[in-house]
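Is this the right way to post structure tokens for a design question? Let me know if I should format differently. Anyway, here goes:
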């Protein structure tokens, strides 16, 4: 069976100068690649985490999937349809099966609308009037663990955790097949974070939806995702089953990110891997391996030749000339 979402070699570009300015300045290429050659797939009922520092391209992938940013190259198939070949009307019909959970649910909600209006707004936006909106609001609020009378409140009357639940209810209003969750726990206390992640996990199991989580919080990734992809300068440097990557990262950038993440079990804490230098500009990508300017394991080859993707038996891929070695069995 084909996956719900299948992305191959996706490239997304941003224009850095207007048409006139690029002619005046004689710029050959007034674009930068925010996302390069990214491939992944997501099955129904599965969760994939996109991880990386700010500016790594993870939010651009989400915007491109949702039709908010043009895709320059590659193919994106969703539920058997090639999104790039659809006209606007057909895309809008497919788009109803994709929902976005914004990072700041209160800030992204109109302060003048009641919670009932907000959770049922997708019905109005997508032309699905004719439903009993009181009933729908009560159903959605109950689904996310809020009492139906929350429908009469306004966003400023909600706690951070309640606002997230409203964001989840709104995202699920149209029974989507895919939810894109942008930093689903940002700004929440740790105990509330766990509640929101458990809610998402439970709903996913119950409803069979696929979730694409965008985050820099590795604890979120560990808690909720089946697979994860690590991004650097718009590329995937490593991708695979979440547990396998936490157990044994193969790319030095992943190793550094994981080593900076507080371990719940202090006995399992790893030595911190410090990265030198700054993240290079997308306008001036390093030659060879683009991570070589910061990599503690870089060698001469890395400075001139770009590494290719290696795949191991566990559908775990990494892009490195000298990947970190998996633990060797101890000699008897
Ligand atoms: Fe580091 Fe070289 Fe691997 Fe790049 S290819 S991540 S520089 S070891």
């Amino acid at each position: 069976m084909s996956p719900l979402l299948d992305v191959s070699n996706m490239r997304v570009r941003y224009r850095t100068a207007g048409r006139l300015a690029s002619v005046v300045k004689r710029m050959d290429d007034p674009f930068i690649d925010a996302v390069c050659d990214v491939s992944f797939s997501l099955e129904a009922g599965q969760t994939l985490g996109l991880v990386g520092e700010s500016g790594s391209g993870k939010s651009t992938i989400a915007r491109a999937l949702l039709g908010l940013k043009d895709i320059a190259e590659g193919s994106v198939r969703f539920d058997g349809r090639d999104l790039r070949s659809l006209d606007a009307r057909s895309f809008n019909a497919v788009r109803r099966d994709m929902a976005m959970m914004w990072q700041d649910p209160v800030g992204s909600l109109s302060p003048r609308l009641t919670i009932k209006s907000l959770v049922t707004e997708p019905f109005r936006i997508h032309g699905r009037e004719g439903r009993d909106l009181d009933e729908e609001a009560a159903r959605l609020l109950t689904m996310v663990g809020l009492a139906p009378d929350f429908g009469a409140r306004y966003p400023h009357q909600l706690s951070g955790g309640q606002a997230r639940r409203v964001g989840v209810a709104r995202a699920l209003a149209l029974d989507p097949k895919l939810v894109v969750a942008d930093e689903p726990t940002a700004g929440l206390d740790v105990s509330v974070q766990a509640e929101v992640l458990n809610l998402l996990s439970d709903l996913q199991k119950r409803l069979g939806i696929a979730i694409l989580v965008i985050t820099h919080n590795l604890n979120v990734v560990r808690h909720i995702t089946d697979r994860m992809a690590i991004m650097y300068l718009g590329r995937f440097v490593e991708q695979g089953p979440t547990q396998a990557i936490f157990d044994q990262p193969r790319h030095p950038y992943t190793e550094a990110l994981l080593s900076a993440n507080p371990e719940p079990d202090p006995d399992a804490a790893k030595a911190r891997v410090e990265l030198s230098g700054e993240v290079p500009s997308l306008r001036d990508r390093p030659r060879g391996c683009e991570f070589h300017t910061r990599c503690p394991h870089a060698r001469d080859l890395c400075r001139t030749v770009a590494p290719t993707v290696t795949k191991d038996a566990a559908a775990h891929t990494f892009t490195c000339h000298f990947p970190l070695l998996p633990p060797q069995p101890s000699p008897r």
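Format looks fine. Someone answered above. Worth noting: The first strand starts at residue 5 and ends at 15. The pocket of iron/sulfur cluster is lined by residues 251-252, 289, 291-292, 295, 297-298, 302, 307, 320-322 (CB under 6 Å).
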